[in-house]
Amino acid sequence: MSVLILNIKQLLQVHESNVTIIKGKEMKELSMLENAYIYIDHDTIIEYGKMEDYRTIEADTIIDATGKIVLPSWCDSHTHVVYAGDRTSEFVDRINGLSYEEIANKGGGILNSAKVLQDTSEDDLYNQSIKRVNELIAMGTGAIEIKTGYGLTVDAEMKMLSVIKRIKQESLAVIIPTLLAAHAIPSEFKSKKKDYIKLITEELIPKASELNIAHFIDVFCEEGYFDIKETNTILEAAKSYDLRPKIHVNQFNILGGIALGVKHNALSVDHLEELNEKDIEALKGSDTMPVALPGCSYFLSIPYTPARKLIDAGLPLAIASDYNPGSSPSGNMNFVVSSACVKLKMTPEEAINAATVNGAYAMGISNMYGSITRGKKANLLITKPMNHYSEIPYAFAHNPIEQVIINGQLL
Ligand code: NIG
Ligand code: FE
């Protein structure tokens, strides 16, 4: 199966030599070919160039992309897309004045989602979740990190891992599973938190590792959830199972989770709505990708990650959806790219770099995804006709995507 796309108005994120991360000032540059073609065979990008240099190539499918933009599909490095039910009643509670914290303290929030998930069969959980994954693919996302974390018991976490494994097998998108081993304290462990940490380190992590599904370990490092010491204990335990950290830090409070993540060579530290100079210093010179989640800030009305401070300090930045029922019930990466521009003051070039190459980096797959480079996987999206790629973030909440190609397959 080969696909040839001709007359592309703008072919974005084109790199002759492979690029796996884009940092600081470089994020303002988006390499591009105008009036271009691209040829893909099976799941691989074989050739691309300017139309003036195009010489006939035979292909099974030929697409005329006159007036349209082609770019790598979105790489969403942070989602909780496997969940059961929804939290619409808490949404209304928040509109009526309760805070996210107050709802959680009443036994709502993550505990609420965990209860529903525990009572949902594996098949039902799969059916609810794959539907969302398919919606994400149709909106241009080609690679998706999916976390556990709504189980809160060993059995329910195993159920989540099985569902993620099934999604990975059945979906065309690239699925990167993460064991969110420490997401909240179940009520029965409220007065014996130490026992719960023990359960995580001595039962959950070993058992999950046996299944060999998760690539990464995650902890919600936050006041009222897991403090620095507890997070450290959990990351230490995960190390012997080769689970590299990708952690939730600085969503509401600065506890020092960024420096801790860097110390453990975390692949990413995510949220960062709160951020200080020490955090920025800790990230400098590290291999850890900071990840902003503007959908969460939008939905919870909390501060937006100070992207300018990070990028202007020479650091890279990725953006992701944080798709989950409580703090970001949307996985639309087109909206994430748009809100990165509008609210994080990122330029369209920076936002597109953050949602492609850097998103792929934050999943450990940027050697094969996230840019248009010969030999990389053909995960592409074709937009509706537009004058310039800046219209993708400009026309917020529109769907700019016309067609999606995942691993060389036209959807
Ligand atoms: O990334 N912050 C922790 N976890 C999720 C929200 C979980 C929930 O409210 O269900 C997040 O925002
Ligand atoms: Fe999250």
From TrEMBL:
Its main location: cytoplasm. GO terms for molecular function: imidazolonepropionase activity. Signal peptide: none annotated. It is an enzyme of class 3 (hydrolase). It is found in: Cytoplasm. It catalyses: 4-imidazolone-5-propanoate + H2O = N-formimidoyl-L-glutamate. Keywords: Cytoplasm, Histidine metabolism, Hydrolase, Iron, Metal-binding, Zinc. Residues 230-410 form the Amidohydrolase-related domain. Fe(3+) binds at residues 78, 80, 248, 322. 4-imidazolone-5-propanoate binds at residues 87, 150, 183, 251, 327. It comes from the Bacteria. Belongs to the metallo-dependent hydrolases superfamily. HutI family. Catalyzes the hydrolytic cleavage of the carbon-nitrogen bond in imidazolone-5-propanoate to yield N-formimidoyl-L-glutamate. It is the third step in the universal histidine degradation pathway. PANTHER family: IMIDAZOLONEPROPIONASE, IMIDAZOLONEPROPIONASE-RELATED. This is Imidazolonepropionase. It comes from Winogradskyella litoriviva.
